[in-house]
Amino acid sequence: SGPAFCRRSRVAASSGLSRNFFSARFHERFGMTVAGYLFHLRIEMAKNLLLSTSLPIKEIAFECGIPEPNYFNKQFRRATGVNPSFYRARQGG
C-alpha cells in the first residue's frame, strides 16, 4: 500500500535505520505494524474528538488524517464496531 509505505520510509529514514529493519524491530517491540499503529492512533484521536467536541464527523476525519469521510466511517466502524455518529451518541449520553 502506497501511503503506509511512504510513512514507514519517512519514519525509518528519520531513525537512521533501513525501512525493513525498522519495520521488523517495530513489530517485534509493539506487536503491530507501523501502519497498524498509526491506524490505532487515528481511531483513538477520533474517539476523543467525537466525545470532547461538537465538530462534524467529516472535520474529525480530516483532523485524524483520513480526509475521505466515507472511508473514515468504514475504518472507524471496523475498529469500534459502530459508526462515528452512534459512538458519539452512545458514549456522550
Task: Explain how this protein is built.
With 93 residues, this protein is mainly α. The protein has six helices and no strands. It is elongated. The model is unreliable at 1-5 (pLDDT under 50).
What's the layout of helices and strands?
Blueprint: H1 2-15, H2 19-30, H3 34-52, H4 57-63, H5 69-80, H6 84-92
Order of helices and strands: HHHHHH
The structure class reads: mainly alpha
| Uncertain runs | 1-5
Give the overall silhouette.
elongated
What can be said about the biggest beta sheet? Answer: none
By DSSP, the count of extended strands is 0
Helix percentage? over 70%
The average pLDDT score comes to: 87
Task: Report strand %.
Answer: under 5%
Radius of gyration, in angstroms, nearest whole number: 15 Å
Q: In whole angstroms, how far apart are the ends?
A: 38 Å
* Helix segment tally: 6
